[in-house]
Specification:
alpha+beta, Alpha-Beta Plaits, two-stranded antiparallel sheet, 10 helices
């Protein structure tokens, strides 16, 4: 029913019962398909904007859940739910997904510790986008058939999330670098195309020049390379990767999540809320 570049906003407008024309401007500083959850960020932003324009005051949890419903149920996208929650809530959180619901708990770090963590994370654009549905499809099929290697890797990655949370709350920021490295080794077992020789070469090069650990963001296969690196080694890592035509992108943590910057008197009439 909804296809093409406008499938997502059209599905959201349909959900709110809006059938007449709406002018919507969408912009992003990153290209699509690069593993930073941009499609879910757009879904959350549009849900927040349209709900506000309709005079509805949805909680962050409701916004995240509605974005999940639109992407996964209405559009049939083979994705998880973590990106929608990250965009809706903002900040550094420990998110638990169970059959009974979703729990979002802020990770307790002092402001100076958050600043130190942010300072040690580096992001490089590899220049390659990918279709995560292919990688996630292979991963899901392996999981459904209870592939022992994949199941063991998934279980280990889940354990690492708890270890990382506890380490950060103890003030052991460097643990993130070591756990990112271990996480990446396990993640490459999820599917055959999570990594490739070129990505492996870039990653090894970064480690050789001082990065403690890292991973390709999102499902893998391309997009952005996230690294944990002490400040004194970052110039060497940057120089080495830029010589391989990777582009470093500066970023900052966001703590507000999806929010309306300007809310005028515009109101969209809601014909039916599904």
């Amino acid at each position: 029913l909804w296809e093409g570049d406008l499938a997502l906003p059209r599905a959201i407008l349909n959900h709110f019962g809006i059938s007449r024309g709406v002018t919507m401007f969408l912009a992003s500083e990153i290209p699509p398909g690069t593993g930073l959850g941009s499609s879910s960020a757009v879904a959350v932003a549009v849900v927040k904007a349209v709900a506000t324009a309709c005079g509805l005051h949805l909680s962050r949890q409701e916004i995240a859940e509605l974005a999940c419903y639109i992407e996964i149920e209405k559009l049939g996208m083979p994705i998880g739910r973590q990106d929608q929650y990250a965009s809706a809530f903002g900040g550094l959180n420990f998110v638990t997904f169970t059959s009974e619901g979703v729990m979002v708990e802020p990770i307790r770090l002092a402001p100076h510790q958050l600043a130190e963590l942010e300072k040690r994370l580096m992001l490089f654009y590899t220049g390659a986008s990918r279709h995560s549905s292919m990688i996630l499809g292979e991963q899901r099929r392996a999981s459904d058939r209870r592939d022992a290697r994949v199941i063991a890797a998934l279980d280990r990655v889940k354990e690492m999330a708890y270890v990382l949370r506890d380490s950060l709350e103890r003030g052991d920021i460097a643990a993130m670098g070591h756990l990112l490295h271990e996480n990446w080794q396990e993640k490459k077992k999820f599917a055959s195309n999570v990594s490739n020789p070129k990505i492996d070469r870039w990653y090894d090069l970064a480690r050789d020049h001082g990065a403690l650990g890292g991973k390709i963001t999102g499902a893998g296969g391309g997009g952005f390379l996230l690294l944990y690196c002490e400040p004194e080694h970052q110039a060497d890592v940057t120089r080495a990767l830029e010589q391989q035509d990777l582009q470093r992108m500066d970023f900052r943590f966001d703590y507000g999540g999806a929010r309306v910057l300007m809310n005028t008197s515009l109101r969209l009439g809601v014909e039916e809320i599904l």
